[in-house]
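dumping this here before i forget
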Amino acid sequence: YWIAERLAYLDRSPERLIKANVKTKAPIVKIFGGNNPTLLLNNNQLLQLHGDKFVSVPTVLPENAIIHAISNTGIWFSEPDKFVLHFQPKQAKKPTKNYTIDSQVSTLLPLSGNQALVMTEKTLLYVSNEGIRFSIENRYKGCTPLGIFSPTNQFVLNCPDNALHLLQADDGTDHTVLSQIDAIDRVLISQEGILLTSGNSSWYYKPH
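structure:
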C-alpha cells in the first residue's frame, strides 16, 4: 500500500480506464452478459470476449433470427411468425432442441444445463433437455425473472405488485410471496437466503 501511495504521488496522471477500443464491422445491437460477454451485431454476427479480445462465434443462424439469450453453452432464439423456440449450441450449424410455444417470447432467463424460464404473451414455461417441465398461464406479465433459489427449488420473480413471487420449479405453483410497500429495487440470491432492498429498508428472507 505504501509503495502504491508513493507511486501515485510521483505520477499524478489519471489512471487509464479504457484499455482498448474495439471496432466492429457492424453496429452493436445487444450485449449479453455472463462469464464471457457476447456482442450481437445487426448482421447477426456474434463476438465473444476471450481475455481482452472479441472473437467471432462460428455459428449459423437464420437471417431473421430473434436472439433472446446467450448462455455459456448456447443460443436461445426464435423466428418471426413462427411459434417455436430453439436452442442451438455455440459453433453448431442447427438447433438441437425445439419447443413449440403458443405466442412470441417476451422474456427468457437462461439457466444451467441448457434450461430456461420462458415467458410468452400467454404462458410461463420451464424448458429443459427433457422438454417442457411445466407450462402455466402467464399471470406474471411485467415481472422480471431473476434466477432460482436452490434451497427451496423456486424461481424468483420481481413483480410490479412490489413483491417477489417464488414459483416451485416442479410445477410452477406460487406458494411464497414476499410483499413490500415500496417497489423492490435490488435482489441478491444466495445459497442461504434472499436479500432485497425496498424503499429505505433491506430485508433478508431465509426459509425454515
